[in-house]
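Please fill in the sequence for the structure shown.

STRUCTURE ENCODING:
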C-alpha cells in the first residue's frame, strides 16, 4: 500500500486580509505510516428512559446513537483496512488511579464545589443517575477495540503508544468534540503539548451545547473552527473513507 493518502480537508484562514478569512478546502497528502485514529469516549448511550438524570445532565447522549450505528462502522472499516492504528481512550480510569486535588482543600473550597455540583452540573436531582450511568457504562459495539488495538487512559500512555508506532498525527472521533476530545486525558490539548497534529472527522462527533446554541449547533461549529485553527484539520467522513480505500494506480510495465 502507498505510504500516503490524498484527501480533501477543511482549514480555516484566521489571519488578515479579512476577505481571505474563513473556511477553505485543500486536498493534502497525509502519511498512512504516521497517522492514527483515536476513538474517544464512545460509550453506548442509555436506552430511552434509562438513567433519565444522566440524560438530562448530558443531552448529547440522545444524539450519539445514529452516529455510532451509521458512521462509525464504515469509517473504522476503512481505517483498519488501510492499516492505520486505532487507539481507544475510554475514560474508564479506576478511582484508585485518579489524581487527588493538587491544591490545598479547605471547607470553603468544599462548599463551593458542592454548590457547583448542585446548581451548575450535574444538578442535585441528577447526581444519582449520573453516578449509576457512569458505573455501568460500556463501549458501544461499533466502537469496541479489536483484539490487537490498544487502549490508553492517560495522555502519557497514549504518547507512549504513538511513539512505539511512529505516529505524529491523530484523527479523533467520539464524544464530545468541545469537551472530552479537547480537555480530557488523551485529548487534543494534552497531545498538542507533546507535538502531535490533532484532527477530527466532522460527522463522527457531536458537541456539548447550551440553551443559546442548541438550535444552530453553534458550539459544534465553533469546536470545528477551534480544531482547524489550533490543532490540525477537519475531515469529512466520506472524503476520508474514499481516500483510504481508493485503489492504488497501476505500476508502469
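FILLED IN BY: designer on duty
SEQUENCE:
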Amino acid at each position: 500500500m502507498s505510504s500516503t493518502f490524498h484527501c480533501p480537508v477543511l482549514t480555516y484562514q484566521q489571519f488578515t486580509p479579512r476577505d481571505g478569512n474563513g473556511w477553505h478546502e485543500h486536498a493534502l497528502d497525509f502519511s498512512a505510516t504516521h497517522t492514527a485514529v483515536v476513538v474517544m469516549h464512545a460509550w453506548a448511550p442509555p436506552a430511552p428512559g434509562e438513567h433519565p438524570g444522566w440524560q438530562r445532565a448530558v443531552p448529547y447522549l440522545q444524539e450519539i446513537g445514529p452516529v455510532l450505528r451509521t458512521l462509525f462502522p464504515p469509517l473504522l472499516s476503512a481505517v483498519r483496512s488501510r492499516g492505520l492504528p486505532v487507539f481507544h481512550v475510554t475514560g474508564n480510569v479506576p478511582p484508585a488511579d485518579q489524581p487527588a486535588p493538587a491544591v490545598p482543600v479547605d471547607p470553603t473550597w468544599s462548599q463551593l464545589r458542592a454548590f457547583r455540583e448542585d446548581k451548575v452540573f450535574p444538578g442535585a436531582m441528577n447526581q444519582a443517575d449520573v453516578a449509576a450511568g457512569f458505573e455501568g457504562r460500556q463501549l458501544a459495539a461499533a466502537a469496541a477495540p479489536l483484539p490487537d488495538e490498544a487502549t490508553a487512559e492517560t495522555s502519557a500512555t497514549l504518547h507512549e503508544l504513538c511513539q512505539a508506532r511512529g505516529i505524529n498525527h491523530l484523527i479523533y472521533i467520539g464524544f464530545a468534540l468541545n469537551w472530552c476530545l479537547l480537555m480530557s486525558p488523551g485529548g487534543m490539548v494534552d497531545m498538542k503539548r507533546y507535538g502531535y497534529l490533532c484532527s477530527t472527522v466532522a460527522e463522527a462527533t457531536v458537541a456539548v451545547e447550551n440553551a443559546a446554541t442548541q438550535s444552530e449547533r453553534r458550539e459544534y461549529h465553533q469546536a470545528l473552527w477551534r480544531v482547524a485553527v489550533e490543532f490540525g484539520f477537519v475531515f469529512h467522513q466520506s472524503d476520508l473513507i474514499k481516500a483510504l480505500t481508493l485503489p492504488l494506480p497501476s505500476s508502469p510495465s
